[in-house]
Write a structure and sequence with these properties.
The protein is mainly alpha-helical. The protein has a single domain (about 5-390), classed as Sodium/glucose cotransporter (Up-down Bundle), CATH 1.20.1730.10. Helices cover about 75% and strands about 0% of the residues. It has 17 helices and no strands. α1 runs parallel beside α13, α7 (about 155-200) crosses α14 and α8 (about 205-215) crosses α11 (about 265-295). It is globular, with a radius of gyration of 22 Å. The relative contact order is 0.19.
Length: about 475
């Protein structure tokens, strides 16, 4: 693209190499698995909060959320109401349970309550879900790199994946959290720079953008329709969003691992609830950028909605600024990918490898195994991103990723609900309940997706899992 210059290339290269080197340096002195995967449980809550936000939104926020507003309105914000409610519930119900024991993964809690089978079953579900959802996230990052360089998507995916792997492999969770915090700041600055640029590129600036958006009905935030088929309504946001975030932030190792790195329960609760408030602001900023893009392009149709913001960055912004914003895209992607790789490696090492090899408590060997699993999962995520390429024209990446996660999140949440709230459920009933819950939502997704939108998936899956697990339970612990 003509607007992309040598200065932009320098900005991106310096950033990518600098953050990779810094992340690897942060991991110096690791002595064992607790250091590598939990930061010795001494990371500050503010950094953890920023890491949580960076991990859950990443490139999908940077590229896809503007596309959501471009094609629709601001109704996506309704999800954040449920996000806040769900995180408050997790901080009051699940986090105290995690901090009562010296737990290494989220699924260790289920082993304490039901047995090792429940732990491994839920951990395996987490692995499959993260592999699918985060492969989509990685693909989204390849879009601007491919536009800039002309490289095929597989090459772009491999470059981003390889650089992220380096600092994740050497730096562990400490590097993941601190680099996440830095990178979240960078891509928020990128969004604000784009908003300022739109003020000058659209005649009449933001006043005109908002006026035209209001006339087109694109400033709508609340939709009180009682329907399951529309994904962004007040009820889907409040109820569906609450159950989705209870599952994602209360049962998903990707997020729980970060919360377990905090120094205390109160610090972990502050990080979790604070992340909900930060996400509200973040989504609002990126949705407004989407409205500005809609006004700038006059509602022009794009073949892939995730490319709209990327095209704007590369084609319209001055040199240096373009490089900064593309670096922000990479920052968002690397934060999510590094988090995924590290959490998958920790679940593999602690939930499967260490118990099966009789190495539980051997910190040095867990560290070695964890680094080996880091390599394996990085390769699998890169491969999954390549496989997503043919599907990218059918939906936005953010909706695809959230849909994949929502299919199984309800089953995980129902299992944790049974573990904390029910004395009747046992290991057999919990596993059957999860299978039924996930199976029910999968059938809905495959057969009638137009009738039940994805924000309801977690609620439905959790309800089925809880009811079946409770009904079939015998009260036995194992």
């Amino acid at each position: 693209m003509t607007a992309f210059t040598g200065v932009d290339v320098i900005v991106i290269v310096v950033y990518l190499l600098g953050v990779t080197a810094w992340g690897a340096w942060l991991g110096r002195g690791h002595r064992g698995g607790t250091d590598y995967f939990l930061g010795n449980r001494e990371l500050p809550w503010g950094a953890v909060m920023l890491s949580v936000v960076a991990t859950e939104t990443s490139t999908l926020t940077f590229l896809s959320i503007p596309g959501v507003a471009y094609l629709g309105a601001l109704t996506f914000l309704q999800l954040t109401l449920g996000y806040l409610v769900g995180r408050v519930v997790v901080s009051l119900v699940l986090l105290p349970a995690y901090f009562r024991g010296d737990l290494s993964t989220a699924y260790a809690l289920l082993e304490q309550r039901f047995g090792v089978g429940a732990r491994r079953f839920t951990s395996a579900i987490f692995m499959v879900t993260r592999l699918l959802a985060d492969s989509v996230r990685l693909f989204a990052t390849a879009i601007p790199l491919a536009l800039i360089t002309g490289w095929p998507y597989p090459v772009s995916i491999a470059v981003i994946g390889g650089l992220t792997l380096i600092y994740t492999y050497f730096g562990g969770i400490k590097a993941v959290v601190w680099v996440d915090a830095l990178q979240m700041g960078l891509y928020l600055v990128g969004a604000l720079v784009a908003a300022i640029a739109l003020q000058y590129l659209v005649p009449g600036g933001w006043g005109e953008i908002l006026a035209r958006s209001a006339q087109a009905g694109k400033l709508e935030v609340l939709d009180f329709r009682l329907t399951l088929s529309v994904p962004y309504t007040f009820w889907a946001g409040l109820l569906g969003g609450a159950f989705l975030t209870m599952a994602s932030h209360g049962t998903d190792q990707l997020i729980v691992q970060r919360l377990l790195t905090c120094r205390s329960l109160k610090a972990s609760q502050a990080a979790l609830v604070g992340s909900a408030l930060a996400v509200m602001v973040q989504f609002a900023v990126f949705l407004l950028v989407g409205l500005g893009l809609w006004a700038f392009y006059g509602g022009q149709a794009f073949e892939v909605s995730d490319e709209i913001f990327a095209f704007f960055i590369v084609e319209q912004l001055p040199m240096g600024i373009t490089g900064l914003l593309i670096a922000g895209v990479f920052a968002a992607a690397m934060s999510s990918l590094s988090s995924s790789i590290n959490s998958l490696a920790s679940a593999s090492a602690y939930d499967f490898w260490a118990p099966l090899r009789g190495m539980t408590g051997d910190e040095a060997r867990v560290l070695k195994a964890g680094r080996a699993f880091t390599l394996v999962w990085a390769v699998l995520l890169i491969g999954g991103a390549v496989l997503f390429i043919p599907l990218s024209r059918e939906t936005t990446a953010v909706e695809m990723a959230l849909g994949i996660a929502s299919v199984v999140y309800g089953g995980l949440l129902g299992a944790f609900g049974l573990g904390v709230l029910s004395r009747r459920a046992d290991q057999r009933s919990v596993i059957i309940g999860m299978a039924m819950g996930i199976g029910t939502v999968t059938m809905i997704w495959l057969t009638v997706p137009e009738k039940v939108a994805w924000p309801w998936f977690a609620l439905i899956g959790a309800a089925v899992t809880f009811v079946v697990g409770w009904a079939l339970g015998s009260g036995r612990k194992r």
